[in-house]
Write a structure and sequence with these properties.
The complex is a heterodimer.
Chain A lengths: L1 H6 L3 H30 L5 H13 L2 H12 L4 H10 L7 H26 L2 H9 L4 H9 L4 H16 L3 H7 L9 H10 L3 H33 L3
Chain B lengths: L6 H5 L4 E12 L2 E12 L3 E6 L5 H9 L5 E6 L2 E5 L2 E2 L7 E4 L11 H8 L3 H10 L15 H13 L5 E5 L7 H18 L2 E5 L3 H7 L2 E6 L2 E6 L1 H5 L8 E13 L2 E8 L2 E7 L1 H4 L7 E6 L8
Parallel strand pairs in B: 3-9, 3-10, 7-8, 8-9
Antiparallel strand pairs in B: 1-2, 1-4, 4-5, 5-6, 10-11, 12-13, 12-15, 13-14
The chains are: A mainly alpha, B alpha/beta.
């Protein structure tokens, strides 16, 4: 058993976590303004924007993967532009995975944040404006610190969701070792090759880590609600 | 300058707050026009009263720049609202005390104050005046209602506001705490020389604090004057007159006794058969008396 474990290739896990970490960071930066806008706006376009944001939840990953592949390939204007100008190819490499993951996991970041912002006492935000503070300062110093559980949920769910993603990754990244072969893809390949022992170990590790991550979220959120007396 | 007896004109325009606004409201009583045209002298303490849904809170929010309205609002030579121009709440130099306190839950008492302005001396002076110094490191969630309200008041004054707006600041507190905080509000109002507009339903509070009372009804000012002029309800030769709600009429032997709620108290009044005819349980009634000299103890 120990021998098997020590021979195990952990690169797919590292790749998965690198991808998830980058995706989570990028999405957090994009989603805070987007979620804030959605939570505060009274525009009639809000439902359209919300539906668009939530689309990746209901779409089959293959549909999303297909369109990302089509729009980023060297035959597309965008893909051609990046290839000619920067010499960067946008498909079948790690960059492609990050771009695809950002689309795929967007709702998992935006929705908890938006829910958190909407649950805030409006008067508290107005008190900040009256105190002379801009939108930016209000978001950073008042809104975000008061929705810590929602922020943590958004970060963790996005991270876990990206680690667990399979279809989109396979479509835009393929399975290139040390480049795009993440843990979920590696498990799929092991099963294809009937290497059930390795597949068991990989799958077991995934379950254990996912459970520990979720457990820590719930423990943290329980403590937060006792400290601030709400949420 | 053209001088008249009007004290507003005497003080000159630079000392005045002009409010002339119009806003359509869709409240609980259907459509309503908030239509206000008033001038307030700087440094004045104005109480705003009237039934709920009469537009008091909306007026405060328009003054704070939190809601849009048509018309013009100016403070001295600063124009806050005119046509499509509306000065952002951030730039109006106001203080706002919300009914639900709206303290920043993630910050301690002192941090709540310092968030508005980094003036540490002012913060500790305010905390001292309101006896909050020992609580300055506590989170709002651990404070009582009265303590939260004092923090809220201190926070509103941290920006040394030209205009202090208070939306029923004491309505959630018990009578003893109210009296204490009324004194603190008055103290702070005078110490800072700020102009204050306070929404209140409590006649004794209004009488104690304000120099001027505006009564709103259906979005219009229906009464404007000193607390005594506006609130004192005795007419004619009546010496005492209390407004109350008729709760019940009981038949006791051969007479009828009306149970009436006046303020926080219930009283019994003997009613004659003649009087009884016009009375319906639940209606608002006036209880007045003429010929006796009361003792106050």
């Amino acid at each position: 058993m120990i021998e098997t474990l020590s021979q195990l290739d952990f690169t797919p896990f590292l790749l998965s976590f690198k991808l998830a970490l980058l995706t989570t960071l990028i999405l957090f930066v994009i989603s805070v303004p987007l979620a804030w806008y959605l939570s505060q706006t009274r525009s009639k376009f809000k439902p359209f924007l919300e539906a668009l944001t939530a689309l990746p939840i209901v779409l089959p990953p293959s549909v999303l993967g297909f369109y990302i592949l089509v729009s980023l390939s060297q035959n597309s204007p965008l893909g051609a532009f990046f290839d000619e100008t920067f010499g960067i190819k946008l498909v079948f490499n790690f960059t492609a995975l990050v771009i695809a993951s950002c689309f795929y996991s967007l709702p998992f970041m935006v929705q908890p944040l938006q829910g958190g912002f909407e649950s805030l006492n409006k008067n508290m935000l107005e008190a900040s404006y009256i105190a002379g503070k801009s939108n930016l300062i209000t978001v950073l110093k008042v809104a975000l610190p008061n929705i810590k559980p929602a922020v943590l949920t958004a970060l963790i769910i996005t991270f876990s969701h990206t680690v667990g993603e399979f279809g989109v990754v396979l479509m835009v990244g393929g399975s290139i070792p040390e480049e795009t072969k993440v843990a979920s893809v590696a498990i799929y390949e092991m099963v294809e090759m009937m290497d059930y022992q390795s597949a068991h170990i990989y799958a077991g590790i995934m379950i254990l880590m996912s459970f520990l991550v979720l457990l820590s979220v719930y423990v943290f959120n329980g403590r937060q609600s006792r400290k601030f007396g709400r949420f | 300058m053209y001088l008249t007896d009007d004290r507003a004109e005497n003080l000159g325009d630079f000392k005045m707050i002009h409010i002339n606004i119009n806003k359509k409201l869709y409240g609980s009583n259907g459509k309503m026009d908030l239509d206000i045209d008033i001038k307030i002298v700087q440094g004045e303490f104005v109480a705003l009263t009237g039934l709920s849904g009469s537009g008091k809170t909306t007026l405060l929010r328009v003054l704070a720049g939190l809601e849009e309205a048509k018309g013009r609002v100016s403070l001295g030579d600063e124009v806050w609202l005119e046509g499509s121009h509306s000065l952002a709440p951030q730039k109006r130099e106001i203080g706002f005390v919300f009914q639900d306190y709206a303290l920043f839950a993630n910050m301690s008492v002192e941090e709540n104050l310092l968030f508005v302005s980094k003036d540490k001396a002012l913060a500790s002076q305010l905390l001292e005046m309101t006896e909050l110094t020992t609580l300055k490191n506590r989170l709002p969630n651990t404070l009582s209602g009265g303590q939260k309200q004092r923090v809220s008041l201190c926070r509103a004054l941290m920006g040394r506001p030209k205009l202090l707006l208070m939306d029923e600041p004491l309505s959630a507190l018990d009578p003893a705490m109210r009296t204490k905080l009324q004194n603190e509000i008055l103290l702070l109002h005078k110490a800072f020389g700020t102009t204050t507009i306070m929404v209140s339903h409590d006649p004794s509070e209004i009488y104690r604090l304000s120099e001027r009372v505006l009564v709103l009804e259906e979005g219009k000012v229906i009464s404007d004057g000193s607390a005594k002029e506006v609130l004192l309800k005795t007419t004619g030769s009546a010496k005492f007159s209390f407004e109350g709600e008729l709760l019940d009429i009981l038949k006791v032997d051969v007479i009828h006794v009306a149970i009436i709620a006046i303020g926080q108290q219930l009283v019994e009044v003997v009613v004659s058969d003649e009087e009884l005819k016009g009375l319906v349980v639940g209606q608002r009634v006036n209880v007045s008396t003429k010929a006796f000299s009361p003792t106050i103890s």
